[in-house]
Amino acid sequence: MDNLKLMALDAEDLAIVSAHVQDAVLKVSGLAYDARSGQFSVVVNRFVWETAEARGNAFERRRAVLLFKRVRSVRSIGFSRTDPEKVLALLALQFEQAGEGPEGTLELVLAGEASILLDVECIEVQLADTGGAWETSFKPRHPTGE
């Protein structure tokens, strides 16, 4: 499989990127914010959902980088950023528009009722696999809410 490269410039695009990073795992040490450039990056090990059904019992994870541009500020809720080895599970990316313009809050929804909130000028997100693929026998499952 070729390396995945996606870009999101609106809420519809963001939903597609979100689907590709659902169940990604990351360490706090993989979070980086550069206030000067307005960029926030996250190094993740994403579950490769796009090939999961075709692979049978063997699945794949890939190293990838999520890059958020035009970020004004970053806040975290539900975990300490001082523990670099803390592992977090990414569930979804969501955007809440503020007013009529393109600005708003982009939320990285994490397991355990945690989240990372990015105040952004607009949606500008890139996802790129950086190689480092490996096989896993574990496929993430989600409760059905019954």
List the topology elements.
Layout: E1 5-8, H1 11-21, E2 24-27, E3 31-34, E4 39-47, E5 59-68, E6 71-77, E7 87-97, E8 104-110, E9 114-120, E10 125-136
Antiparallel strand pairs: 1-10, 2-7, 3-4, 4-5, 5-10, 6-9, 7-8, 8-9
Low-confidence stretches: none
Measured on Cα atoms, how large is the radius of gyration?
A: 15 Å
Strand content: over 45%
Class per helix and strand makeup:
mainly beta
Number of strands: 10
One letter per element, helices H and strands E, the order comes to EHEEEEEEEEE
Q: Could you explain how this protein is built, in words?
A:
This protein is 8% helix and 51% strand. It is mainly beta. The strands form 2 sheets. Strands 1-10-5-4-3 form a 5-stranded antiparallel β-sheet, with helices on one face. A 5-stranded antiparallel β-sheet has the order 2-7-8-9-6. A hairpin with a 3-residue loop joins strand 8 and strand 9. The chain is globular. The relative contact order is 0.28.
